[in-house]
Amino acid sequence: MPVSKLLDGRFLNRLEYFRLHSRRPARGHWKGVHRANKTGSGMEFSDFRPYAEGDDLKSVDWRTYMRLNRLILRLYEEEADLPIYIFVDSSASMAHGVRQDTPSKFDYARKVAAALAYVAFVNMDRVSLIAVADGVVKDMSGKRGKGQAWPAFEFLENLPNEGKTSLQAAFKRYFSAPRTKGVVLVISDFLDPAGFESAFKVLRQLRQEVFAVHVVSDEELQPDLPDEVVLIDAEDGSATKRQITPGLIDAYRAEFERYGEELDSFCTKNGWGYVRASTSVSFEDLVLRVLRQHGLLR
Questions:
Q1: What is the largest CA-CA distance in the chain?
Q2: pLDDT surpassing 60 at residue 71
Q3: Is the CATH code 3.30.565.10 the one for domain 9-24+82-293?
Q4: The pTM is what?
Q5: Which regions of the chain carry the CATH code 3.40.50.410?
Q6: Model pLDDT, residue 233
Q7: What is the 3-state secondary structure (H, E, C) of 60-119?
C-alpha cells in the first residue's frame, strides 16, 4: 500500500468498513452503494406501476398479468454513486494552533479531508477536493475509484496555506459551473470577516446537502496571554495593541462560543450536519467515533 504523510495504512484499513451517509437519494450517474433518486433494475423491490409503451418487457410481472390480464412493471430501487464535494480551508488563519502535542488547524483539516475522501473512493463515490481561501485556490474534481486516493492525498499534501478568507466567493466561483447535487463537506475554522451566513446561503440556494466540520484549536478555546499584547491578524497583517484583563478574556470566550452556537443552529435549521472539531482530539477519534455519532459516516 502506498505511503501517505496524512494517513497510515492501519487507519486506511479501518476506513474501508465505512461509507458516507446522505439523507437524500443519490443523484450520481454511475453504479454505487447509495439509494438513487430513480427506480430501475436494482436489487431491492420498490413499487409497481402500469406498463407504458417503450418500457422494458423484462420488468413486467408476468404472474400479475396471468391473474389480471394487465401489464404491470415491478420497480426496483437502484443504487448510484454520490457526488462528494470536500472544501478545505487553506487560508492563513488555518496555520495556527500548533503546540507540542497538537497539529495546526490546517494539518488537522487535511487529515480529516483525506480520511473522508478515502471512504468515498472505496465506495465508488465521485469525489471533488477544493482548497479555498478568498476564492478557489486549487481543485481536483470528479474523481472516482480507490486508485484515485493516492493522487488525492498528494493534492492535499501540496496545498498552500495562505491568503484571506471568503467562503462566499469560493462557493460562488466553484458552483458557477453546473454541478450535480450531492454532499458538500466544509472543513474550516470559519474565521471569515463576512461571517458564515452569506456563504452558506449560496449552498442553500443550490439545494446542496451540507456538513460543516468546524476546526478549532486549544489556543482559541483557552487563550493564554500576557497582560499586554500586540494582536496581529493572521490574514491581513493588521496589528492592535491590547491590555488583557480577565473581563476581556471572558468576553472573548463568550463571543467565541456564541459564534459556534450560531453556526450549529444555522446548520440544524437547514437540516445539515455540524460538528466542532478540536485539534486536541485525535482526528482518528473524530472520524471513527464523532462523525459516526453525527450521522456523516455509517
A1: 88
A2: yes
A3: no
A4: 0.82
A5: 9-24+82-293
A6: 80
A7: ECHHHHHHHCCCEEEEEEEEECCEEEEEEECCHHHHCCCECCECCHHHHHHHHHHHHHHH
